[in-house]
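Quick one - inputs below.
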Amino acid sequence: MKPTASDIQFYKTLIFFNALIPLLIMLWDFAHGQIGVNPVELSIRTFGVLTLIFLLLTLCVTPMRKLFGWGFLIKYRRMLGLFAFFYGCLHLLTYMGFDRSWSISGTVADVIKRPFIAVGMVSFLLLIPLAVTSADKMLRRIGAKRWLKLHKLIYLIAIGGVVHFYMIVKSDVFWPVVFAVALSVLFGYRIYSAYQKARG
Amino acid sequence: VVSPSPTDTAAAMADKPNTFAQITRYNNFYEFSTNKTAVAVEASEFVTQPWSIEVGGMVAKPRAFGLEELLALGQEERIYRFRCVEGWSMVIPWMGFPLAKLLELVEPQSGASYVAFESYYDKRQMPNGRFAGIELPYVEGLRLDEAVHPLTLLATGLYGQPMPNQNGAPIRLVVPWKYGFKSIKSIVKITLTNQVPPTTWNKAAPNEYGFYSNVNPTVDHPRWSQADEQRIGEFSRRPTLMFNGYADEVASLYRGMDLKAFF
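Output:
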């Protein structure tokens, strides 16, 4: 089953609009006064979780390609990664706007003072070079080898994101642990396949 | 970092009571759920009748009090600020009576110096309690002088109505100058003692939650700042007040104490 160019375009559009649905639901709820008692916390948390979800979806592409032979999935990986960056931006902006009242110095002070904010901020900053170099033109400019090396940063970013989530929770670590387990499975696959490859 | 000092902005920032919907749809009640918006749903079937509180320990007249008896001790409205340790706050019009009124009836012995509280816990009614990540039943404690302070309330309702399940029906503690988790919900047991009582969050994370847990903008939680708070219904943060704005009434209880050490 090899999708044609127009299939791929169709699925890209489908993924694009689906990935925006959480944001649209939130805007709809907000416009209708249905966003709950603490919209500040809800929006910051939701954008954070969406960032993690899209990071994990991005990391799912390689194992799925190899395990199921779905090579075409690579066509959608960039979009998934860029959605991780998009929701990461919204997460940062809602935090800075609502929690820090747009104060740059307040944000910097917060990063210095609170380890979990620092972990989140570093992860976000590491996402920026990946987003910037996501275009084909950039890939050609820096060379495929270096590009691949650079984009390995996603492993560090995903770990940082999950740790950041784990650190904010007061006692019920269920969801951070779910993300940690999912991430471990995705890493486990890579370690296993690297081991198999090394063995020949 | 420009954080406005409490004195100049606090006066300008009025304390408008939160709406009934806000107060009853955003609750920390881990026995039912750790998701604040799910608590109201999970607690909707909570059976709170009959109810009684067993009052004992170092008292001359230990006994159980039925809810009707407690309601008969009188109901007054108290509009208090409520500051959660997580960094959000509300203003809540409670109904209730001073805890001191109940303690008078059991006559604490002269050696009693602390009051221990225990919440109702029933795994059948609260199946999600297993996932709370804290040891249940929930326990809390106050020093006796804190417990008999006129601001310390046993609350039986809010907005003139009986206490909603999700807010700690049918009777809960309200200590407005301390972080919200000190205000234990759905109380079934009160014990006078001469030992510092164990408290749930202190047991769960002793470096993060102390016995006193007075609202204090100058002592940060290890993971977040306590200098300011988000009042539910507002989109920016407002400065947190010392003792949640009740310093005139309660500061004398802690005279000479290092509040950083006794956090």
